[in-house]
Amino acid sequence: MNGVIRKILLPLPSLVRRYLSRKRTYRFRELTIEVFPGVFHPGFFFSTTLLLQFVEKQTLQNSNVLELGAGSGIISLLAWQRGASVTATDISSEAIRNIQYNAIKNKATLSILQSDLFKELPRQKFDWIFINPPYYPRQPLKEEEFAWYCGEGHDYFVNFFGGLVPFISDDTQTIMVLSEVCDLKKIMEIATLHGFEFEKIAEKYVLMDGKNYLFRIKPIRSNHTSLNIK
């Protein structure tokens, strides 16, 4: 399925919607979770896998980690397994319930908070911030659609980059996964307006899912923005 067709048909074909209408089990390495209906399933698109593969290679012992839009909580749980103190947030009440369920299931200690990005998050500095964001430019009308739609004006990214500064230090690693399906140019323009640039640190092409990119987000320290995505 090429990018044009995906933009027309996605976020979820009807067959996938039917499959996800029930609670489903998903595994990554030794980590097993349940994915509730209405919560982003990490197994259907490679973006979560790319981020998980990155997280499992990092030294996170005693670090302070934030995951925004944690969904089922699998990335937060992997970071916790690697020794981090983890805050997992999501705007969706069902996602929060799902994270709580999976934390108990895996005997994990997470700080779990329902929040629209940074709105309910106490100000603090994080060592790592992980984000697998929504990026389809439509207005979410239902709670479950916040996992897919970022607003017609890419409002999610405007609010993310506009609210990021109080939660990062010079040493914070802010990692975001994006797909070639989204409007990368627009997202990077928003980042630049707020004083941030993208550094591509990984790229993977997957059949039926296209190219996925892993970016490190950094304050701009020069007169250029890292737009090397080809």
Could you list some keywords that capture this structure?
230 residues, 7-stranded mixed beta sheet, Rossmann fold, two-stranded antiparallel sheet, single chain, alpha/beta, globular, disordered N terminus, 7 helices
Binned, the helix content reads 25-40%
- DSSP strand tally: 9
The total number of structural domains is 1
Shape: globular
How much of the sequence lies in strands comes to 15-25%
Fourth-level CATH superfamily = Vaccinia Virus protein VP39
Number of helices: 7
Which fold name fills CATH's third level, the topology? Answer: Rossmann fold
Q: What spatial order of strands do you see in the largest sheet? A: 5-4-3-6-7-9-8
CATH uppermost class: Alpha Beta
Average pLDDT across residues?
89
Radius of gyration: 17 Å
**Given the helix and strand composition, which structural class is it?**
alpha/beta
Pattern of helices and strands:
HHEEHEHEHEEHEHEE
The unreliable regions are 1-9, 224-230
Q: Biggest sheet, in brief? A: 7 strands, mixed
Structural features, described:
- The chain is α/β, with parallel strands linked by helices and 230 residues long.
- It has a single domain (3-219), classed as Rossmann fold.
- It has seven helices and nine strands.
- Helix content is 27%, strand content 25%.
- The longest helix is centred in the middle third of the chain and has 13 residues, at 93-105.
- Strands 5-4-3-6-7-9-8 form a seven-stranded mixed beta sheet, with helices on both faces. It has a two-stranded antiparallel ribbon with strand order 1-2.
